[in-house]
Amino acid sequence: MMIRLMLRNKKDGIMCPIPQYPLYSASIALHDGTLVPYYLDESKGWGLEVSELKSRLEAAVADGINVRALVVINPGNPTGQVLSEENQQKIVQFCKDENLVLLADEVYQENVYADNKKFSSFKKIARSMGYTERDFSLVSFHSISKGFYGECGRRGGYMEVTGFDSDVKNQIYKMASVSLCSNLSGQVMMSLVMNPPKDGDESYELYSSERNAILSSLGRRAKMLAEALNKLERVSCNEAEGAMYLFPRIELPEGAMKAAQAAGMVPDTFYCKRLLDATGIVVVPGSGFRQVPGTWHFRITILPPEEKMPTIIAKLTSFHESFMQEFQG
């Protein structure tokens, strides 16, 4: 809805991170806008550098693109990084200086595993810098489909729109009203997410213990999987600070590159397809999220049950070893 609102024609652009959640590039294309990519720095734990934002913005403007918004995914998908408050302050200031709407995708805010990191909303950061509704445009997104509750079979969420003129907000309500049937079950679940049991409530102890157990298990799974991936030949992987994914980089042998070309596939898709056929393990090729040209990745989730992780890791390791032996020559 917000992307549709932002884009008037092909000359309007929205900045999105690469690698990115494909919904953004697809929605921008659907509404006939222009994707303005900026690259996360894999060598710095998928860091978001403001210098990169400035460089990409300047290049887009030079090409005649009217850049209207910046998308930031925090914690990251598919990369799993969690931004520091200092970094967030620089991003807010960049949007303020360049008159960009900040579209803050914060659906993984509950999922933070790194001991030295914590989630802070962009609204909190903007307010701490003294920016109010009158001088900073921000849209914050949240969902019931992620987090520790992870109700992926249901759909519900919200966006908080701040710093927009009331006439613009009225247009957003009109766009929402085109959908005649309200998503009642999703709305009920979203209200439960936003108003969880509180200390003293009858269900608080059970809720708290279940929540902590799920999040601590996800943290262990993320660490276990990252360690296993980093042991594989020609594979390197940043640890997941948050979200639900790892995004390892794989250097494919020349033989695999030629076999992929002969099969009419992108190299990382070829690897992922072979992995699926051999093990039943589903991963998503990095090319589906875009990546630095000439690099290859895949996204793998940390969602399988913890007790099944050793078996999955053993299957993945065995496949990778045989794949490398097959194409090493």
TrEMBL record:
Pfam families per UniProt: Aminotran_1_2
* Enzyme class, spelled out: transferase
Residue limits of the Aminotransferase class I/classII large domain?
5-314
Q: Which Gene3D superfamilies match?
A: Aspartate Aminotransferase, domain 1 (3.90.1150.10), Type I PLP-dependent aspartate aminotransferase-like (Major domain) (3.40.640.10)
Keyword Transferase tagged = yes
Q: Which GO terms describe its molecular function?
A: L-alanine:2-oxoglutarate aminotransferase activity; pyridoxal phosphate binding
Q: Which UniProt keywords apply?
A: Aminotransferase, Pyridoxal phosphate, Transferase
**InterPro entries assigned to the protein according to its UniProt record, in alphabetical order:** ALAT1/2-like, Aminotransferase_I/II_large, PyrdxlP-dep_Trfase, PyrdxlP-dep_Trfase_major, PyrdxlP-dep_Trfase_small
Name the Enzyme Commission number(s) assigned to this protein. 2.6.1.2
Q: Which cofactor does it need?
A: pyridoxal 5'-phosphate
Its pathway, per UniProt, is:
Photosynthesis; C4 acid pathway; Amino-acid degradation; L-alanine degradation via transaminase pathway; pyruvate from L-alanine: step 1/1
Q: How does it assemble?
A: Homodimer.
PANTHER family assigned: ALANINE AMINOTRANSFERASE, ALANINE TRANSAMINASE
UniProt record similarity statement: Belongs to the class-I pyridoxal-phosphate-dependent aminotransferase family. Alanine aminotransferase subfamily.
The protein in question is named: alanine transaminase
The species this protein belongs to is Ceratopteris richardii (Triangle waterfern)
